Fold each of these.
Amino acid sequence: MLKKVIVVIVSLAVLYKILTLIAPPIVDRHLNGIVDQPPYEVSEEAQEIYDNLPFIADLHCDALLWKRPMEKDLNRAHVDVPKMHQAHVDLQVFTVVSKSPKNLNFDENDDRTDDLTLLNFVQGRPLRAWFNLKYRVGSQSKKLHQLEHKSDLKFKIVKNKSDLKSIIESNKDSFHVAGGLFGLEGAHPLKGQLKNIEYMYNKGVRMVGLVHFFDNELGGSAHGVVKGGLTEFGKQCVREFEKRNMIIDLAHASPQLVEEVTAIATKPLVVSHTGVKGTCDRGRNLSDEQIMAVAATGGLIGIGFFEETMCGLEPKLIAEGIKYVIDLVGYEFVALGSDYDGSVEVPFNITGLPIIVDELLHLGLTEPMIRRVMGENVRDFMLKNLPD
Ligand SMILES: [Zn+2]
C-alpha cells in the first residue's frame, strides 16, 4: 500500500515538473502575441533620428509575470535585457500584476477569482505565490534584483534620481546600461493596510497603479463593478505615496477615480499605458478633460501599443494617439506606454521602437518633439519626481 502511494506521489511530481517545463512558454507565446517579427525596417531618416535619441523610455511592461530568463534574447519576449540593449532603451518600467480575475474583460470584473493562481501553479512558482499577493510582489522584486546581479552591469534598477543620473552618464557616448523602474499594477497587495506601503517601498516599488481590472480597497477600476472614486483608504495612500515620492499611476482608473485623484494630488501623476478617446473611444481611454487634468499636474500620459488603447494594431495608430495629446496639451506630457508582455498582442517587440519615429515623422512631428515623446519627457519627469 505504502509503495503504491509513493509511486503515485512520485508520478504526480514528475508530471508536474514536466508541466512546468512545457506549459509556460506555450501560455506566454499565446497571451503575448506579436504581429510582425523582427528585424524591423524603417526609413533612413527615422533610423538616424532614433540612433541619435538622447534617452529612450517606456512607461509600462509586465515582463516579470512570465517564467523566462530575462537576461536572454527570447524570440517570444516583447522585452528582455538583450532587446533593450539592441534598441538602446535607457529606462523601462516593470510592473507587478498581482491578481487577474477569471474571464477578464474590459467592462466589468469582480475580485472573487484569480487566474494567477493557475498561472503560478503552471509556472512552478512556490506555493505562497499561488495565493499571496504580497508575496507575489516580493518574488517579482527578487527576480528583478537577481536580473540586475546577473547582468554584469548591463541592467540597473532605478530607485532614485542618482541611479538614473548614473545611467544617463553611462550611456552618454555609447549605450552600456539598460534601466528598470519597479512598479505595481494595482495596489491591492497592500491588503488595505497603510503599513504595507513601507514593505513595497523597501522592495523597490517607485510607481503605483492604484487599481487594475477590479475595484479594490483604494478605489474604482474602469473595468470594475461599481467603478467608484477614491475611498478613505485610497486618500490616505495617495498622501503616503506622495510623501515617499512614489509616483501615482492612474492607468485602468475609473473616470471618477481619475477626477478625484487629479483633484487632490499635489505631485505630478502618470497614466502609464492608455489610449485617448479622441482617437479610440473605449472605456479605459482618457477623455480630453482627463488628459488636461493629468497634464495640469505636470504629469505624463503613456500611449499604449495594443488593441484596447488604439482600436487596431497598426503602428500609425500609436502615433495618432501621441499626436492627439500633443495637439491638445503640448508635447511635454506624452510618452510611450507599450504594455509589452501584458497579455496583449502588439505590432512589434521593443526592437521595433524606431517604427514609431517613422510614423511620427509621417504625421509631421519635428525632431525635438520626437525626442521628447521617445524618452526625454520620461527622463525629466523621473529626474524631478523620483526620491533623492
Ligand atoms: Zn494594464
Note: The chain has a mean pLDDT of 94.
Amino acid sequence: MNSTLEVIENNLHQVEVKDKSFIFHIPTTSLFERDELTGDILSSIQEQDKPTNLSLTKALGARYAEGDIISALGELKSLSLVGEKGLDNDVEEFAPLTLESAPLTTVVLNINTGCNLSCTYCYKEDLDLPSSGKKMNFETAKQSIDMLLSESPDQTRYNVVFFGGEPLSNFSLIKGVIAYSEDLFASKGKLVDFSMTTNATLLTENHVEYFDKHNVGLSISIDGPKAYHDRNRISVNGKGTYDTVAKKAKMLLSRYRSRPIGARVTLTTGITDINTIWDHLFNTLGFSEVGFAPVTSGDISDYNLKPEELADVFTNMKKLGEKYLAAALENKTIGFSNMHQLITDIHEGTKKALPCGAGVGMVAVDHEGGLNLCHRFTGSDQPLLGDVTTGLNKPILNEFLNKRLDKNDQSCATCNIRNLCAGGCYHESYARYGDPAKPTFHYCDLMRDWVDFGIHVYTQIMEHNPSFYDTYIAPRRAQA
Ligand code: SF4
Ligand code: SF4
C-alpha cells in the first residue's frame, strides 16, 4: 500500500497545446486532456524522493479531497502511467505472431513492368522500357484474385489495385480483371473495390468513362507545377511531361463523378516547396487530395532529400498543416492527405504494431505471379513470400514480421510514437540498409515532431469544431 511509486515515462508523453495539457498514452495511442489534479500527481511523483500514496495525499491534501487524489492515482495506475518502483514497468511485451492465415483484403497487381516514362528517381527494380515491358497475363491475374479469396475467405470487402510500370499500358487486362472480380465477389456476397495509380499520359476519355462506371479509385502521379514536375518526370526521350499530364488531369477531373481523385507527389532533392505544389494541384488543377512522399532512401541516392531539405519539408508540411487547421475550423478541407491521415490515426486511436499492411492485409503480385511485401518490392532481390498458385509462404512471412515486431533491442522500444510509426516503411529500410526488417532511424525526431504537431491540430479541431470529424473522417472510413 505504501510502496514507492514512479511515473512510467516510457508510456507517457505530455503535449502542451495553447493553455491545455494532454496526455498521449503511448501503449494505446489514446489522447486525454490532463486535468490539474493529474498534472499535480505526476509532478509530485517526479519531484518527491520516495513518493507513496500517503506522501502524495499529504502533499496535495490542502488543494484536493483525499478521495479525488486516490481515484486519480488509481486511474494513472490502471493506465500503467504510474507504477510501483522496482517492478518491470517499462517493458511493453512483445507478443510473437504466428499467422495461420493472413487477413488479406488487398492484392496489388503489377500488370506491366514497362513504363512509357523514365522518371529520374524511379525506385522500381523491375522497370522496363515500354517495348520490353513484361505484361502479366490473365491467368496469373485470375490466380491472384483466387489466391486472395482462398487465403482470406472471411472478409466482407476486398481491394484490387493495378500497378506498374504504367498500368494503363495493359488496359485489356484491367478490364478482364474487373469483369472477373465483379462476378466472382458478387457471387460470394462480397464487395470489391478497384484502384490504380497512373502517370496519366496514356489516359483517354474512353478510359475515364470505363473507370467511372466501375467506380475505380484513381491517383495521378504529378509533382506540382511544370518547373518542378519536369525536373524528374520525363518521357523515355528525356522530355518533360507536365503539359500532357496536366491536360489529361483536367480532362479526368472534369468528367469523373464516382470518386475523388488524388495527386501523388514525390519530393526529391531540391524540391521542398510544399505550399506551392499543393496550391497548384488543389487550387489550379482541382485535385481533391494531395499527398506528399518525401524520398529519403531511394536507390539513386543523388535524388534523396538531404537532411536539411527533409527538415524543410517537415517545416513546410506544418505550415500547410496550419492551413488545414484553419479550413477545418470552418468545416472545410484542403485535401492535404498526409495531415488528414495523421489526424485520422489520432482520432481513431490507431495502434500499429507494424508500419503498414504489407504482408498482412496486402500483398503485391509481380508479373509472373510471385508474392511480394508490397508494390515497391516487385523485382527486388528480397525472397518471394510465395506465389499465386501455392499461396503465401507462412513460415517466411512469420519470420520476417516477427523480426520487425520485436522492438526489444531497438530505440523504437522507448519511442513515444512506436505504436504509430512502428519502425517506418519496410522499403525505405531495404533501400537504406538492405534489410526491410530494420527500422528507419534517419528521421525519427522529425516524425516525432510531426506527430506532436498532429496532436496540436487534432485537439484544436476537437475543441472548436468537433463536427469536422463526423463530416470528414467517419464517412471516408465507412467508404474505405
Ligand atoms: S523508427 Fe524512429 S520514430 Fe519510428 S518508432 Fe522507431 S524510433 Fe520511433
Ligand atoms: S512497405 Fe512502405 S511502400 Fe510498402 S506499403 Fe508499406 S509503407 Fe508503403
Note: The pocket of iron/sulfur cluster (ligand 1) is lined by residues 411-412, 415, 417-418, 421, 423-424, 439-441, 444, 447-448 (CB under 6 Å).
